[in-house]
Each structure stands twice: as C-alpha cells, then as structure tokens.
Design goal:
Blueprint: H1 41-46, H2 54-62, H3 68-82, E1 84-85, H4 87-90, H5 101-107, E2 109-110, H6 112-125, E3 129-137, E4 153-160, E5 163-167, H7 169-172, E6 174-180, H8 182-192, E7 196-204, E8 224-232, H9 235-242, E9 248-254, H10 265-271, E10 272-274, H11 287-291, H12 301-305, H13 315-321, H14 325-339, H15 344-364, H16 368-461, H17 475-539, H18 547-608, H19 614-655, H20 658-732
Parallel strand pairs: 1-2
Antiparallel strand pairs: 3-4, 3-10, 4-5, 6-9, 7-8
Helix pairs in contact: 2-6, 3-6, 14-15, 15-16, 16-18, 16-19, 16-20, 17-18, 17-19, 17-20, 18-19
Length: 733
C-alpha cells in the first residue's frame, strides 16, 4: 500500500504575465545556443497506435534518429501532445496515486507526477537519462514574498550529450486559464458590447440683437454649437446585469507549448524551485531567492521564445542520480528539510520511503539482530512520518489562514483605494456644482443688467435738454461747477479706460474658457482610461498585488494630481476669475452711470447759469445713450458664449459621475475574484486534510503490520529457542 502524493494546483503555473526584464539575463555568455524542439507531427501522431507497448512506442518515435536530442524531441512532443492533464485526479481529496505506466498510457490522462514518470520511462527505453524533480511552482494565488509550506509540482531534468537540461512537459502540454463559465462568458460579452446610442445636441444662438446694436458685435458670434455624446441604452438593465454573480471555471487548452522545453535555468528558476536545490542548476540559489524574485511579474511570451540555452555540466546531479534508493531518499530528506523546514509533507514521503526500504532489508536479513534492528528503524521512521504529517496538517492550516487573510486584504485594498477615488470624484463634483451655481448667478445678473440698461436707455431718451437759462451769469457758480466737471471728466476717463480693459480681458478669456470646458470632457475620458484598463485586468483575474494593477494604480494617482490641477487652474479658478471680471465690469459701469448722471446734472446747471449752450447738453445725452447701447450690445454678444460655458460646466458635472459607476463595477468584479479564491483555498485545505488523513491511515496501517511482523518474529524466535532448549535437554538426557 503506497502513500498518496500531494499534487496541487499546477494550472496557475501556466501563467502568461506581462513583459520586459529577462533581456538582462542574455547579457552574459553563460548560454550560447537557442534550443528548438524539432519533430515530425505526423510521425509522432502515427506512433500513438503503439502506446500500450512502450518499447514499440519508443522505437516508432526514435526511428531513423541518431542523436539523443532528436530522440528526446520526439518523445517530448508525443507526451506533450498526447497526454492531457487530469483534473479529476487533481481535485481528488485523497491525493494523487503513485504513477502507473499502464494507466497513463491507456487513458492518456495524468497529473505532473504521471507526466514526469512517463518521460523518465520512455527516455530510459531510448537510453536517455531523464530524472524526475519534485518542488515548488508559483500558483495563481502566489504573490511576491509569500511563505511556501509545501511542494506542489514535479518536472524533469534530462542529460543530453553529458550535459543537464531542465524541462516541464506538464506545462508544455497546454495552458489553463481561469475563465468565466459559458453563461458568464456570454453575459460578459453582452456587457462589453452593450448597445450605445449617439446623440447630437445642438445649442442654437437664441440671443437676438435688440435691434439697435451694430452688426459688428455679432459677426464673430456662432449661430449654433454642436456636442455629440454616447450613452448606454437601457442603462437600468445594464446595472441589473452587472449585479449577477458570474461564476469562474478552469479551462484547459491542450496544445504543445515549447516555453518549457529545455529551459534556461535562470528563467526556469523564476517559476520552479526543487526540493533538492542542486536541481536548480544554479549554485547558491535558495527558496528565499525564489519567493522574492520580482522577475515573476515581468514574464512574457518573448521571455521563453528568446531564451538561449546550453547544457550545464553538473557533477552533483550525476552523483545524485547514481544513489541507491535508500541513499536517494536520505539525501532528499536532508536537502529538502534544510531548504524549507515548513515542507513537512516531503519529509513524510522520504521517511515513509526509508521505512519501506528498511523493512525490505529486514525481510531479507537472515541474522535476527540485524532483522530486529531494521524493523526498529522502520518503526522509528514510521513514527517520524506520523509527526511530519501532523506538522504538515498544522502548516496547511497556517498556509490557508495566511492566504485567506491576504485575499481579504486585497479586497480591503481595493475598497480603500476606491473610497479615495470616490472622495476625489465627490470633491470634483462638488466644486463643479459650486461653479455651476456661481455661473447661473452670473447669467442671471447679466440678464438683470440688460434689463437695467434698457430702462436707462428709455430714461435717457426722455430727458429734457431745453432748459430755461438765467439772464445773467454767476461767475462764482460757474467756476465751482467747472471744477466739479473737470473732476468728473477725469474720473470718467479713468473708468472708461478701466471698462475697456475689463472688456478686452473678457474678450480674450471667455471664448478660451468656453472651449477649455468642452475639451475637458475629452480629457476626462482620457483620465478614465487607466481605470478602464484596471477594470479589464480585474476581469482577467488580476488583484492588487499583481504588477499590472500596481502600475495602473501608480499611473492613476499621478493622473489624479494632474487632472485636478487642470480643473483647478483651467476651470475652477478661471470660472472665479471670469465671474470677478464681470462683477468688476458691472461695478465700473454702475459707477460710470452715476458719474454720467452727475456730469449731466452739472452741465444742466451750467446751461441754466447761461455758462454753456443747450446744444452741449443734448450732445452729452446722446453720448451717454451711445455708451449705454455699447455696453448692452457687448453683453448681448457675450450671452451665447456665457450660455455655452454654463452648458459645458453642466455636462462636465454630469460626466464626472462615470468614475463612481466604474468603481462600483470594479468592486463587484473584485468581489467575484475574492469569492472564487476563497472557495479554491477551502477546497485545497479540504483536499490537503484528506491527503494527510489518508496518508496517516496508510502510515498507521504500515506501523501496525510492522509491529505485528516484529511480534510474530520475536514469538517465532522464542518458540525456536524453546524448541532448541528442549532438543538440547533431550540430547543431554
């Protein structure tokens, strides 16, 4: 009866992360040759009919091939293209049974142990030395600097022309991705391609000239302004569909992938670390180096495509494969425990195997003392195995607890980030809302001012200039009035210059401000692009620890600072500036109106004092009418631009809510990932407990049998001694 082998989630090992980095490795001269797999697909496929007879299968695969590499390529290609990963066994709570060649070849299914064992067997028939290596692979829940509590994978090393190479035929046989189930795929596609409608809004210039305005005021004013935007149809239904809890599943794509065929050890090390560090083919590498290697986040397809590989001469590897089974297990026990004391399952396996080998020696021993010694050694290692299994159970619980806490932390990280983003969005919305209210007040004030100027025109037109004059001039009164007139003229000159300056500033600022508001709508969607990319990465099962998300978060924080600066300087501050200019213009015009009234009164007194002719009073009246018409017409010409700026602020305010909707969808998606990972973690814990319990039953049963064997053997020795004693006594008598 064999102990079950732990064989966990190798599916994540088919990761296809994202770009860069590995080119640094190629700067050295350690590797010089680009190894490519070479095989004839038809020959490989034709050999399948011999699969139940391994010798004939190997003969068919290696026919007319002279070099070890050609033979190895054909065997590798056949195993990778013929054997599929067996998820039924992978999900089994009793663990993976020891590999059996007949079962693998018959059903053409297997897990990593089966792949590795099959490669060793077929290569051995072809007189090629392939060696199974057990160790750690980075699963889909792995993150940088995670603690590793148990090995979870098996791969191979092969010696070709006296040099060692690493390869992983399990990963080469196909990729597995976490995907939506069929309904989820359909719904996701529907959501991504949700119908939108494009709507064109036309703002016509309804602010007509009152009739007295010269046409030059309105020559540059556009007749209409068009704005096109898109929005989702039936958005209420879309929001409802987004709430549906979509389910994930593993999808296996069975096809030959040469990424893990004769690998560069330094690239292979990024995702694989053996229990016995000698099989890294990289002296000095530790499991700490493996778990903290950030290159894991920079892998890309080009990383594997461009890797240059040359065989490695490894005397320690040659020595290891030459060990007898007992020595091999003792060496692995020592090396694996020294490498990672947390991996007590490998410790148990070695102890269980050593116990089995010692018991076999005991069974063949003829000397009773030697036999008992080997039996006691067997019991000692079986007892140690029970202790290791208990430790393994404890570490499995610790691993589950750490992973679950980490998974919850990822969800909290997103919640905290999105809370900050929502506050950011709320601040922008609040500021925009405040500016909209201020702008509406401005538009209202402009409307009031125009009504006021219309009333003033009516008032001025009704002023009488045919006044009665005095018979004699009063010199003292004339002098006083002229001094006041001079002061009034100086003040009016200054005001007119100030009014002209303010109008010129508004002529420059207002159109630019209006255009910048509408441009900010486009800039806002550029600002949202990293959020969209982040949401897309969430659908690809990436979390806040993955580099793609980390980089996007950095970009978002940078964009937030830039965008809020643009809004502050280009919109919010400019809004205040323009409102202040209009307010300043209003104050100056009011002050000018008051001075004009004062000047008219002074001139009227001069006319009455017979100091000035009445025609000057009529001329002043006409001048003030022109000034009133000028400011009224100028305001009329700016009403449409002001109106468009206000509409732009309202549109911006409406669009700013899109970010909050996007954050909500992202949180829903992260919640789906969170629940899936938790479910997977619980399944693994249940599986690992089942494996430990199963192995404990096997180990306990073996202990019982060995104890029974020892008891019977000791009893037989006593019986034999008793018989010998009786025989001796009879002989003496």
């Amino acid at each position: 009866m064999n102990a079950a082998r732990r064989d966990p989630a190798y599916f994540s090992c088919f990761l296809q992360p994202v770009l860069l980095f590995i080119f640094l490795f190629f700067c050295t001269s350690f590797f010089s040759q680009n190894q490519q797999i070479e095989y004839d697909a038809k020959e490989v496929q034709a050999a399948t009919k011999f699969r139940m007879k391994p010798a004939l299968l190997v003969e068919a695969l290696t026919k007319n091939k002279s070099s070890d590499k050609e033979k190895f390529d054909a065997i590798f290609a056949w195993v990778a293209t013929t054997i599929r990963y067996d998820y039924r066994v992978y999900y089994s709570s009793s663990g993976t049974p020891m590999p059996k060649l007949e079962r693998i070849l018959k059903y053409k299914h297997g897990v990593c142990l089966d792949y590795a064992y099959l490669m060793d067997t077929l290569c051995s028939i072809a007189d090629i030395r392939s060696y199974s290596v057990y160790g750690y692979s980075k699963a889909e829940t792995f993150d940088l600097n995670d603690s590793l509590f148990a090995d979870n994978h098996a791969w191979n090393a092969v010696r070709l022309d006296g040099e060692w190479y690493l390869y992983d035929v399990t990963w080469a046989s196909g990729k597995t991705d976490i995907q939506f189930k069929p309904f989820g795929k359909w719904l996701k596609k529907k959501i991504e391609n949700w119908p939108v409608k494009t709507k064109k809004i036309v703002f016509k210039n309804k602010f007509k000239c009152p009739g007295k305005c010269p046409p030059e005021y309105f020559e540059k004013v556009p007749k209409k302004f068009e704005y096109t935007y898109t929005k989702y149809k039936h958005k209420w239904l879309l929001n409802l569909l987004l709430h549906i809890p979509l389910k994930y599943a593993l999808r296996y794509n069975h096809s030959l992938d040469s990424s893990f065929y004769l690998c560069d050890p330094r690239i292979f090390f990024i995702t694989h670390y053996p229990d016995n560090p000698v099989w890294t083919l990289l002296p000095g590498k530790t499991i700490r180096d493996f778990s903290s290697d950030s290159a894991y986040y920079y892998l890309s397809e080009n990383t594997y495509k461009d890797q240059n590989v040359q065989g490695t001469v490894c005397p320690a590897c040659d020595e290891t494969i030459g060990y007898e089974p007992l020595k091999k297990n003792e060496d692995l026990l020592e090396k694996s425990f020294a490498s990672n004391p947390k991996n007590r399952f490998m410790t148990f396996e070695c102890e269980f195997n050593i116990a089995a080998l010692r018991f076999a020696e005991a069974d063949f021993a003829t000397d009773s003392a030697t036999k008992i010694k080997f039996v006691d050694t067997t019991l000692t290692f079986l007892k140690k195995g029970n202790t290791s299994l208990e430790k393994s159970r404890l570490y499995s619980g610790t691993d589950f607890s750490l992973q679950k806490k980490k998974n919850a932390k990822k969800l909290r990280m997103l919640a905290d980030d999105n809370k900050g983003h929502r506050l950011y969005s709320d601040r922008m919305i609040q500021k925009t809302s405040s500016r909209i209210n201020d702008w509406r007040k401005l538009e209202k004030n402009i409307h009031i001012a125009l009504n006021k100027y219309t009333y003033q025109l009516k008032f001025l037109s009704e002023l009488k200039t045919n006044l009665k004059t005095a018979k004699e001039n009063n010199p003292e009164l004339e002098k006083e009035l002229r001094e006041k007139m001079e002061t009034c003229d100086l003040a009016l000159d200054s005001l007119n210059k100030g009014i002209a300056d303010v109008k010129n500033k508004l002529e420059d600022e207002l159109p630019i401000f209006k255009d910048s508001i509408w441009k900010k709508l486009d800039d806002y969607y550029l600002f949202l692009e990293p959020f969209k990319q982040k949401l897309s990465q969430r659908y690809a099962f990436k979390d806040d620890y993955k580099k793609e998300i980390v980089d996007l978060k950095k970009q978002i924080e940078k964009n937030k600072v830039s965008f809020v600066h643009q809004l502050d300087s280009g919109i919010f501050n400019t809004t205040e500036k323009i409102i202040a200019l209009f307010s300043e213009l209003s104050d100056k015009v009011k002050e000018r109106s008051a001075l004009n009234k004062t000047k008219f009164d002074l001139l009227s007194k001069l006319v009455k004092n017979n100091s000035e002719p009445p025609i000057l009073l009529e001329s002043l009246k006409n001048q003030q009418i022109v000034e009133n018409i000028d400011i009224a017409c100028w305001l009329y010409s700016k009403r449409y631009t002001t109106f468009l700026a206000g509409k732009g602020l309202s549109a911006l305010h409406s669009h700013l809510h899109v970010l909050k909707d996007m954050l909500q969808v992202e949180y829903w998606q992260e919640g789906r990932r969170f629940r899936f990972v938790n479910k997977e973690l619980e399944r693994r814990l249940y599986q690992e407990k089942g494996i430990v319990n199963n192995n404990k039953r096997v180990n306990t049963d073996r202990q019982r049998k060995v104890k029974e064997y020892k008891r019977k053997y000791l009893k037989s020795l006593k019986e034999e001694a008793r018989k010998n004693k009786i025989a001796l006594k009879q002989k003496n008598n």
